[in-house]
Fold:
Amino acid sequence: MQVFVYKNAEEVARAAATVFAAEIFKKPDCVLGLATGSTPVPLYKELARMNHEGLIDFSRVRTYNLDEYVGLDPAHVCSYRRFMNENLFDHINIDKANTHVPCGIGADHEADAKAYDAAVEAAGGIDLQLLGIGHNGHIGFNEPNDVFVYPTNVITLTQSTIDANARFFDSADDVPRQAISLGVGGIMNASTRRFPPRSCARTRTCSSSWTRARRACCDSKRYDSRHCNARGGRWRGHHPHQRAGRAGDSLARLFACAQAGSDVDLWARDGRGQAH
Structure:
């Protein structure tokens, strides 16, 4: 795991776009795993800018999103398909037939989940996965738990997740109670994972089970397992504050790490100089 600390969220967006550009340069028909929410929006704007300036080409890229609400039509203002169209796909030269978001309105959600996993596998797996950590530690809509669900699955949302997402709806009562989400297996099988910056409102607390999985992945790739210490059920080990000396790492170094397939964790500092 390579950790980079930047002055603010805008610099993190540029850094994240560099990681994506490196993957596209390396493999023009790469498979990108994408996420929704407010955190990746600056990244998507930067990717659109780079595309408009001819720096990167999405014409052969394929994408698979992490999740979608159950019961929301793709045209619904709060659906993740519409979010991706409005924030990225409508602004780049990607073939929308190559963009995929789980189906939340099918007659058989379990069958749709299996079909999504089969589609990802048929595409060769995800080359680069964008991830965010929810307020309660969820990744995708996979809630913290002592037992992992590895395939794509239908998840009943916790009240804390419903409350956190209520700001996007007219009220908390309008937030769907279920979502279909790429499972832990699909996430951990991605060739490279990138975690976006933590905002001040987000917790760094993760369930010990999540951290054990991250540690296992690190060990399997011969990374230093201290990056994924599960002690106390919290994210410990090499905290970004301990890596402050690397805050000035150039985008060229980040680009090289991305092309080498290293997992990267990008952090932004707040007004007090703290990394989030």
Remarks:
- The beta strands are 2-6, 31-34, 62-65, 67-69, 99-100, 128-130, 153-156, 178-181, 192-195, 264-268.
- The CA atoms of residues 8 and 237 lie 23 Å apart.
- Residues 197-249 have pLDDT under 50 and may be disordered.
- The chain is about 30% helix and 15% strand.
